Request: fold
Amino acid sequence: MAGETVQAASLLQEGAGTSGSVAPSRKTRPNWRPDLQALRALAVALVVIYHLWPSALPGGFIGVDLFFVISGYLMTTHLLNHPPAHWRDITAFWARRIRRLLPVAFLVIAVGLILVLAVYPITQWSSNASAGIAAAIYTENWWLAGNMVDYLARAQSATAFEHFWSLAVEEQFYLIWPLLLAIAWLIGRGTAHWRRVAGGIIALVVGGSLAYCVLTTAVNPTGAYYITWSRLWELAAGGLLALGYPRLAAWLAKRPRLRLIAWTIGLAGVLLAAFLIPARLFPGWVALLPVVSGLLLVGCGAFGPGLRLHRLLAFGPLQRLGDWSYSIYLWHWVLIVSAGWFFDRLIWPTKLAVIAVTIGLSWASKRFVEDRFRRLPEPDPFRKRLGIHHPFRFMVIGMAALSLFGVVISITAVDKSGVFNVYDVPETEQCLGAYMRFNPRCVGRDPHGEQLYMTPSQAAVARSSAYTDGCWWMEHSPTVYPVCHYGVGAGDTPTSPVNPPATDGSIGQADEHPTIALFGNSHAGPYLTPLQSLAEVGEWSIRTYLASSCYPTDTDLAFTGAAARQGCREFTDQAIADMQVSGVDLVIMSALTDPTTDYRLVAGRLDGEALYAAQQAGFQAVIERLQAADLPVLVIKDVPMPPDSVVDCLAGHLANLAACDGPRSARLSRGDPLFDAASALIDQPGDALVPNYRNDPGSASGPTRGVTTLDLTELLCDESTCWDAIGSVIVYFNQGHLSSAFAWTLREPLLSAINHALR
Reply:
């Protein structure tokens, strides 16, 4: 087993000699395991292919699970052979990990942050800087888990450092693992007995972490993917294998055919998982397939040199990929994301170039950074100059320097962006935002406007009060149903800046102070801005009933967890009940429905026309419930959906805003089952009630009492094109959510529709 201790290294990285000594030639080491290097090569190949061609290998992310198994096995093997009996043993273990892992990681993070400044649009600087800081201090997994709770954060573009989540999990494992085994040593007080105690502790970790993983996946699958406690069992499973490996190896040595069969089953399991497991089911129980398969490959793979399989696994290029796997993993994702921003989109030649550059940088990193830092004998002037002879000092300085770099980038981004205030626009501007489309004086002008009054960075944070005031039902808190109150009777509730809109209409005559309910999901949230502005003029009361990743329906949505599914259903019930108690005079509804998003699929996993019909039926049932409660309904058709983040696109095409426009047919291809459900309840559904835009804007209401529809599409599109910048204002703050600046310019159409609905 002594030969295996020199391989006890890290995720994606081969062990090659103890710290501070020149590593012997690979083939001169006792018990050399080429199969582990080959398995690393396979694992990193799965991850890279998955990131470049996800549709070809939908489960390629399980390569990370293989790395966890290998790392847990090797680290535990090392600690079993070198028990952490004293504090200095533990600190020496940590010091070796620092010298081995951090130099290259720090280099990649530094280069990644430089690429962010050089290639990425400024709208991406802050998020990438935050991710870079989290990567530098090895908390990327927790940073991602926290961001995934936020629906809007989930919709953001990937950062250059997301892949550091797995390294963070492993570093946290390295932090606690020697401490747990040190406890086992203190309890055991003897070599034979302490291993049994260690086995019991490791088994408890495997069982407890696996149970936590399964339960958390059912409630919060995205969080379970990143959280340390739901992934610890995979590394600990490798530790259990390390405990039993000596006896297992001796037993399998007498049964070569059984060993080959078990190894083949393990390889088949890995490939099956890579080709078939969808990300939405992971980790949970399905993670057992790649983990158990990895255990089979590690436990059965020490084949004798005389076997053909041994020679195949020892194939030079395969071994070198295993040697470089740590660096390949670090570099590939930074290059993929950066190339995506530089080239707009990645095609086959670009992807192959990314692979070539990744391999080149990985070879250089392995030779000039990894090996240089960990293999040179002590004392070494190079190490001394860089402070690596004091690994903990090196760690602190490196983390602090990279964090400071990230903070500077974030501050620079904020400083360059500023805050956009629609009231700072010159009063002579008559074609601002949506006015460009319905003001007769703006006919014939470039719909984009002569200049942008706001930057893409300003648009990215131009969101209604609903986002800052926490007015959302959230999947991770399924029993909490927030209601925000604005306008008359709202007390100290924050409101938008007050500026009377240029309207000559008055609020409908239902009551002296009408109460308006805003009901829907994140695509309804932006309408709070114009409603607040109108409320100051008409003395309205506004109540919000908004949900994230849910929408008002009487149909169960197929959330992963039963609690979220029930909570989303009760969101609708709670909202209608509160509307009745609060004396709501009008319910304004709008919602995003997306048939490609799994967590929005109705129970039964319907798709296509069946899904659309079920969504429409669910919406229609809700509208009929509102009618039965004598609550008039105004349904606003969902806005056209851009394919990507609008602010990122515009940030890269400020000199040619039209480059980000899209065909109307594509952006409206999803349809809107809520709007269709409302239209089905009236005889003469019309288009948007847009003042001065058409000679006959039409009526959106029919003989069925209390249902009105509003279609704003003509304000965002002409007969062929939909725009991302209209009237010098950016329309969206991300992919499909209206910016508060543009929504503010929709006050007149919205007021006309409200007056119509309240007659």
